[in-house]
Amino acid sequence: MRFFSEWGQFMMMGARAFAEWELENSNTILRERKRLIILGLLLLPILIGGIAFADQIAETMPDLLGGKKAYSPAYYGTFIFIVSIAIGLGAGLITGCIGAGGGFVIAPALMSAGIKGILAVGTDLFHIFAKAIMGSVIHRKLGNVSVPLASVFLIGAIIGATVGGLINRLLYEINPVLSDAFITTVYAGMLGLLGTYAMIDFIRARKASSGTVESHEDEGAHGGKEEGTEIGNISRKLQSMKLPPTVKFDHDYTPGGRSISWLFLVLSGALVGLAAGIMGVGGGFLTFPIFVYILGVSSMTTVGTDIFQIVFTAGYAAISQYAIYGFIFYTLAMGMLLGSLLGIQIGAMTTKVVKGITIRGFYAMAVLAGFVNRIFALPGKLSDMEVLPISKQTSAILEGIGIWAFFIVIGGFGVWVIGTFIVNIRVLKGEKEKT
Length: 435
Description:
This protein has 16 helices and 2 strands. By secondary structure, it is mainly alpha-helical. α1 crosses α13. The protein is globular and about 60 Å long. The chain has a domain at about 1-145 and about 175-225 and about 325-435.
């Protein structure tokens, strides 16, 4: 039970850190005219070519760049573009309002909409890469990036992303249903663990709030850890193993700095890259807790390095492992980018008029809805592979329950947040005038 709690907290810290990165990128993109122009230029081919001339463009495109002969089209019609905006909007609302990564629901949402799992992963990676490039604030945080630390970490991340992409493509070549089943199982396990922890955490916080102030409501992504202070036992042990070569870091926060072996950095990077390559979430939700709680890197250095690695890990995985094989749906990616930018802003502003405990409850429900969605889709996949002896009718009913449960919870949450935002828009404007 203790292991479950610690691992759940580990993932929650990562989800919060990833959400902070998403919010910062959204703010950077939407508050600068040049970046808005870039966004418009990215969307222009989709709006004109992808919708008006979808068939003609797809016919003339090379197979490996998403033409009709590739695994799926690069362009599609108006309806799918609107659906992608809605999916991005829902993920953005969760990220902005809850302060934890809403990107976890993108792949399940795309798969529920009929997109193959491998295409959902590749598209999500490309969407993250586009957002990272457009909203990159690396130049503002270079003082917090340890270039040697990031460089060694990226060696492992590239290896891991390559392996993850290779696994997904190999399984797809063997059997597309096997690929879907694998990705579904990975997401079900991750969402089940995170959702259960989030619900238990919400119940505990609600009980605590009935008599006292919520104990760790505003703990934040850093978990209250101060810069350059004590590190955990695991971090201390790893840093004490002087296996050459080593990397030095955190000179600004600890006298003489700290050092750690390349081995542990490369292994950590490989894990993050593997998660990015298989799940398509960029690996950002793992980097923060691994750096802070396992490697013993200060939070400030971690934030800068995390931004640095997401750009390269997501970019490398998206292009080298998915784009050149035709596993990216560009129309979906751009629609999700547009929707998420809008959703993050609305969600972030809504937090000013909504109780924190309510937000935490919604997050637990959203993640558990994603878990139900994937776990109920799994029997159908196993049945198609003749692993599980159930009828197609039964598997269709189960999958339908998972899809309806998922979209009712996410859709209901979205309607509630947007409704709350509209109702309180005058209050929000008043707060802006006061500040």
